[in-house]
Amino acid sequence: MSSLPKTQRSVQINAHGGLDVIKVVTDAPVPIPEDNQVLVKNAFAGLNFIDTYARTGLYLAPSFPFTLGREAEGKIAAVGKSIQDFKVGDKVAYLGVGALAEYTALDPLHVAHVPSAIPEGVAAAGILQGLTALSFARESYEIKKGDYVLIHAAAGGFGLWLVQVAKALGAHIIATASSDAKLAIAQEHGAEFLINYSTQDWIAEVKKITKDAGGGVAAVFDGVGKDTFDGDLEAVRRKGTVVSLGNASGAVPPFAISRLGSKNIKLVRPQLFGYIAEREEFETYAKEVFDWIIEGKVK
Ligand SMILES: NC(=O)c1ccc[n+]([C@@H]2O[C@H](COP(=O)([O-])OP(=O)(O)OC[C@H]3O[C@@H](n4cnc5c(N)ncnc54)[C@H](OP(=O)(O)O)[C@@H]3O)[C@@H](O)[C@H]2O)c1
Predict the structure, then answer these.
(1) Which keywords has UniProt assigned to this entry (predicted)?
(2) How far is CA 221 from CA 76, 100, 155, 235, in A?
(3) Is 42 within the bounds of a domain?
(4) Residues 64, 21: one domain?
């Protein structure tokens, strides 16, 4: 521990706001892990839409300065007295607050050993979105063979993971994105039907595609939020499921719950952490994410 530096570079905000609130500081203290924490020397960090929510204040920071970043990969640099499952030098990837820094101290609940077969940096790029895609495709709505599933922003980080998971589960994937170039990427990863929601009437297109399958999708996975939520209620079929999982265009405003009744729609608003709150749950899904990467089932 004595060989560790006292200060480090980190990406911080001191207030919520636009891009100008983001500062790279060089004199942030290197945290000292508590007895039940590990200290990770980060080598790679992933960027996620949640970093935008943390900057703008849609998700409020508990205090300032607040270090951004929610996932990273690196090596254990120090362990607290009660830690048994990790030792200095172990290669790990994790979910945790403050990943955009050289060192991050955290509870090991969401820290996983990275198998040696995974190339450098890949675990950091995939763990949060991979865990989300796999757990949501099983637990928010269990995707089944032959289902018509609508995935918004399908060429994004989470979207591309979910396209590949849904494809492997045998679903017909209807992908939306804001450009034809993005749709081509979704197609390369397994999307069967492509809709440019900047230029096309996406609700009408979904109804056309699903006209022989109940006139709507079995499930919609929506990380766009405000701009698409109303349309989701139209695009889903009777007894279908709307998984409202994010707010890229803004938070979904309050609405009358009775609107679900006309088609007996199920509405779910999941958070990844609700599916990996127990260590065993996290380990199961993390192993699956790593297996998918190693087996080349996900690009
Ligand atoms: N609930 C959870 O636990 C959980 C966990 C992980 C991720 N998520 C959610 O999953 C979604 C995707 O996250 P991600 O990290 O993978 O990000 P991302 O997909 O790389 O980015 C979000 C995408 O949303 C689309 N979008 C539509 N309207 C937008 C707007 N006004 N501003 C910006 N983007 C807009 C864009 O795609 P187009 O250009 O194609 O429109 C953009 O690429 C987010 O909503 C995130 O909050 C939720």
Answers:
(1) NADP, Oxidoreductase
(2) 35, 28, 13, 11
(3) yes
(4) yes
Residue 86 included in any domain? yes
Q: Does residue 236 lie in a domain region?
A: yes
Q: Which atom of ligand 1 lies closest to the CA of 250? A: 31
Q: Which atom number of ligand 1 is nearest to the Cα of residue 198?
A: 41
Which residue range is the domain that position 14 belongs to?
A: 7-120
Asked if residue 178 has its Cβ within 6 Å of ligand 1, the reply is yes
Nearest CA owner, ligand 1 atom 18: 156
What atom of ligand 1 comes closest to residue 269's alpha carbon? 1
* 274 alpha carbon – ligand 1 mean position (Å): 19
Same domain membership, residue 239 and residue 138: yes
35 domain-assigned: yes
Residues 46 and 101 in one domain: yes
d(CA 160, CA 149): 14
Pocket test for ligand 1, best of 19, 47, 48, 49 (most atoms within 8 A of CB): 49
Verify that 42 and 112 share a domain, yes or no. yes
Residue whose CA is at the smallest distance from ligand 1 atom 29: 249
